[in-house]
Amino acid sequence: MSEKKTKTAQATWGGRFNEGPSALMLRFSESVSFDKRLAPFDISGSKAHARMLAHVGLLTVRERDAIISGLDIILREINSGKFVWDTTLEDVHMNIEHALRKRVPAAAKLHTARSRNDQVATDMRLFFKHAATQLQAALKKLLYVLVTLADATRHVCIPGYTHLQRAQPVSVAHHLLAYAEMFGRDFARFEAFACNANVCPLGSGAIAGTTLPIDREFVAVELGFVDAKGHPQVTPNSMDAVADRDLFIEFASACALCGVHFSRVAEDLILWSSAEFGFATMADNFTTGSSLMPQKKNPDALELLRGKSARLQGNLHTLLTLTKGLPLTYNRDLQEDKPPVFDSLDTTLLCIEILSETLASMKLNPERCSQAVSDPLLLATDLADYLVRRGVPFRDAHHAVGAVVALAEKAKKPISQLSLEEVRTIHIAFGEDWHKVFDLQRAFRARECTGMPGPKQVLVQIRKWRKTLGKISVNSQ
Length: 477
Ligand code: ARG
Fold this sequence. Notes:
CATH class of the largest domain: Mainly Alpha
Mean pLDDT: 95
Largest sheet: 2 strands, antiparallel
Shape: elongated
Number of helices: 18
Number of strands: 4
Bound molecules: arginine
Helix content: 55-70%
Distance between the termini: 49 Å
CATH architecture of the largest domain: Up-down Bundle
Strand order of the largest sheet: 1-2
């Protein structure tokens, strides 16, 4: 059965229509259910637009002030939850304009020299600038947790892994600082993204600007689309300005990459908290039990971090597919650009918070760590380096140590328990001191170039991070 048609033609664009959209069409086409979260940005944009219209003489000062105070009242209503959103008015822009027209006669002039196409592009750029600062503030907290934890674990050593096989010893601090590097890059990506978003599209109109004497630079300054010197930054092509969705894709991409980082960290911690590794225990609050197996303590927070990264990648994919092959300029398809972006922001913020708390509440098990790191095979490469110091070419040294490993395996003893005579049967360059290689602390002290896990170097990195974090001020309000 077909649904009833709405009786009145749509107020804002309905001039040429005899009938309004059907209820089914409204249900299909409305976006206010999700784009209402743009309201604060839409209202800022409208206030700035009204100031500009007055500045160029298209509104009187009295009309401007009436519009601005009307918009302020509407924003208060929205914030207090009293505003009634109406899906028959399609989107956030028309809901707000409609509410304003009921209060302020001059509201009928607000849409002068403006289209919803440049309006929504402006709203989204304001939204993106805000989103970037929220994410940066959250990442700063996560980095702080990592650096604090690294400081506390400078002397806890574990095997580092390649191919998930024990490779070489590292400190937990060095491992955690690797995560800090990843999230530090995410931070920088959102910073660069915010710069890209900092250009004002308002004044591009629907596609080709306007014949009215507007002042784009004025409105850009009003909205804070300015460079470091305070100069306005406006989009240089009206067609691109309303068609462009690059920022959406960049944002979803930065979130997806951040998600890849969560999932890699999560996977490490899932392994660490398994009985097999036992390096760490997750706090009860971030784990769950099994409805059947009473002994279980499952790392659900970490698993969900891994799972949510799939969703973040999905959002990116949605946006790439949405924009691919779209003709210039605005097409209604583009209304679908918002849900993935909103979801990417909300999911990423939540993941950062969960990861921060999970890390902060995690307990390390130093005995299990030291047991694992006492495996002398972790120092097989150091043994090759020992031979290199004694003049053996690295390839030969590598081969000789491989043979020593095989010998130990055959003799069913740890490599460090072989006698000097035994190892000398493999290479004559092994000397009395060959055994010192297995001193773990010595092995760490030998790794003090930039980027290595030597204790001094790790301390240098922790101090560098503390300094960097101290300098970052992000205003996420
Ligand atoms: N709600 C619309 C969107 O987000 C606003 C722009 C509508 N423009 C139009 N020409 N119908 O895409």
